Every structure is written in C-alpha cells, then in structure tokens.
Amino acid sequence: MVTGLYQTITDNFYYGDSMKKICLNNRLILIQAVIALGILLCLVATADAVRIKEITEIQGVRQNQLVGYGLVVGLNGTGDGDKAKFTVQSLASMLEKMGMTVNPIDIKVKNVAAVMITANMPPFSRQGMRMDVSVSSIGDAKDLQGGTLLFTPLKAADGQTYAIAQGPVSTGGFSVQGAGAGTQKNFPTVGRVAGGGLIEREVSSSFKNKESLMLTLNHQDFTTATRVAESINTSFPSQIARTSDSGSIEVRVPPEYMDNVVGFVTRIENLSVTPDVVSRVVVNERTGTVVIGENVRISKVAISHGNLSIQIKESADVSQPMPFSQGQTVVTPDTNIVVKEEKSTIHLMEDGASIGEIVRALNKLGVTPRDLISIFQALQAAGVLQAKLELM
Fold it and tell me: pLDDT (tens digit, 9 = 90+) per residue, 361-373?
C-alpha cells in the first residue's frame, strides 16, 4: 500500500513538472513569435525610410568651384600643333618670367599642350590640404598621357587664388595612330592629377557658432519637408524644427548643443524619414528610355496599339533602242509601295491599375520602348494618366 501510494505521488509529481515545462516552452515560443512579428512590422514600416543625410543639404556647407589655365609639358610629340598660337605665346611668356627671352615665332615644339584645370574645393578646407584636379586640353593635342602639369593658380568666382595645381597627368587611356588607321581608348585629351591641387587660401565659415541651421531638400516637396521637421521634433524635447517652404527646414540649435554643433548635426543626419515621391513617367526620346514611378496609376481605359510599316522601293525600267536605229534610251521610273499593318488586340485597363498591371498589359501588347513613348503621350492626352509625364 505504501509502495503504491509512493508510486502514485511520484507519477503525479513528474506529470506536473512536465506540464510546467510544456507551458513554459509554449510561452517562450509565443514571446519569440511576438518579437519576430514586431521586428517584421518595424522592417516593413521602415522599408522606404532613408536618413535625413541622404535627402538634404545644410545651407552653407558646399563645395567651391575653381578653374585655371596652364601648360602640360613632356608629351611625346602629341602636344598642340603650330595652329594653336595661344600655346606658343603661353610658353614664351612662361620662359620670359623665368629670365629667358624667346621670340614666339622661333618656338616649334610639339611636346607642350595648353589645358584648362578644374577642381571642386571641399567645404571646410584648410591650408595645406590636397585635392584632385581635372585637366582638359583646349588645343589640338592628341594625347596628354605622360605629361606633367606645371605650376598653375586656381581661382574662384571672386577672382582670388585659392589653390595651386601641379603634378603628373594620368588619362586612363591611349591613342595610337598609324599611316592609314588608328585606335583609341577612352579620352586621352582629358586627364586627372591625383592630389595635384594644394589649397593656399581658406574659405571663412562660422559653422561652429551657429544658432540655427537651414536644411534644404534635394527634391522639393511639402510633404517630405513636413515629415523631416516632425522627425526632428520627435527626437528632441522641444519643437526646434519648422518648415518655411517646400524645400527648406529651419532648425534651431538647442542650448545644450551650442558648443557642439557638429554633434547636433550628426544626430539630425542619422534620423530616418520616409520621403514622399510625386508620381512621374520620365521619357527620353533620344535613347528610347521610359522610367515609370511606383505610384503611377491609370484610370479605366482601353488600349490598342498596332505597328504600321511603309516600305517604298524605287527602281527604273530602261528601254534600249535597237543597234543602228538612231533611237533614244527611255528610262521609266517604277515605284513599289508596300503598306503593312500588324493586327492588334484591345486591352482593357481597370481603374487604378498599378505599375505591375501596367507593365503586364504593355508586355501583352508587345510594344517596344519607342511605342511606350507614344502610348503614354496618348494616355496623358486622354486624361487617364494619373502622373506627371516629363520629356527629357
């Protein structure tokens, strides 16, 4: 009796312990499922979200364009010819500044090329920093490969010199000419000097002591500007951001960030926002490219498109006179015109058709990119295209 009672109690104990384990496992599975669902919903909600850094620019933080005129020397007979008078005059002027007087008429060289140098000076550049410069031939030089750019001042729009360019030119291509043929890779008359620009003058900026910042959208949109302002205001205790128009957001620097404006900008740049996109159909008639936006919709409409081809063949019937008949040759033009029109079906598009349905319908019609241009222009004329049609 005692043994049987002990066995019953032991069985009940293990049964209860097993039930607890099963319930605990079920709870863990349920919690994991809820967490996974939450992560999935967050991923779906932020699938189209981007950082503010990608869609805005900070007013005042910009590059400065520089330009200069210089000479590239050391070319292997591929420089400017005698017709480029400005190259010869520039070479004579440079030699004169170095203490050597030379008559430009006596200069007959083909290892020198006149070039224009362009560069983008990065924002907050400091004296002594280096940047890349682009070198482009303005004469009749055939190749700049192997040449060296001589000391060239680079000026901005205000006429002041902000950098000096000098160094070996790299083109990344070549040009070979023979007696009757030649070959060329890339554009050897345009090159680059890596780190060839040395900054000599700084652009003054008071970014450190700013009390407010102005963010400008890369693509102006009222909805996107409002969302950017709301995202910034949600991340800070006070309302520090407000929209002034469709492309600008004014942000007030909080007192705690007055001495750390860079840290404040870093925090703003990494905030996420979902930009609003205007429905557009962009058409490039030169290349036959058609780009359809995600939110493009079409009202209920029937589309039929058929290809019409017309072939005109010209020939001439010649009638020769008999020998010694003193007759004349008669030429009669003969024109053969063939008109061919392919049969096409009418496809019905339901109201509010999505981009996928539009693509499938157009594929069924068998249209080419050139035909797409005509179809979308006709849809816009009919007033059923719920998007902006832009021609490039």
Answer: 777 766 777 777 7
Q: What is the DSSP letter of 321?
A: P
Structure tokens at 53: 């850094």
Rounded to 5 degrees, φ, ψ at 231 are -65, -40
pTM for the predicted model, two decimal places? 0.64
Q: How confident is the model at residue 180 (pLDDT cuts 50, 70, 90)?
A: low
**What are the boundaries of each domain within the chain?**
64-174+185-199, 212-273, 280-309+341-391
What integer best gives the mean pLDDT of the chain?
Answer: 79
Are the C-beta atoms of residues 279 and 372 closer than 8 Å to each other?
no
What is each CA distance from 340 to 309, 310, 367, in whole angstroms?
5, 6, 17
Whether pLDDT at 277 is above 50: yes
d(CA 275, CA 249): 14
Instruction: Provide the Cα torsion 342, 346, 349, 350; round to 10°.
Output: -170
99, containing H or E segment: none
Residue type, 261: V
> 19-46 in b/e burial notation, b at 16+ Cβ within 10 A?
eeeeeeeeeeeeeeeeeeeeeeeeeeee
Cross-sheet strand order for the sheet of 248-252: 56-58, 212-217, 248-252, 241-243
Q: What secondary structure does DSSP assign to 238-276, as a single string?
A: S--EEESSSSEEEEEPPGGGTT-HHHHHHHHHT-EE---
Q: What is the DSSP string of 19-80?
A: HHHHHHHHHHHHHHHHHHHHHHHHHHHTTT-EEHHHHEEETT---EEEEEEEEEE--SS-S-
Residue 342's pLDDT is what? 59
Indicate if the pLDDT at residue 383 is higher than 60. yes
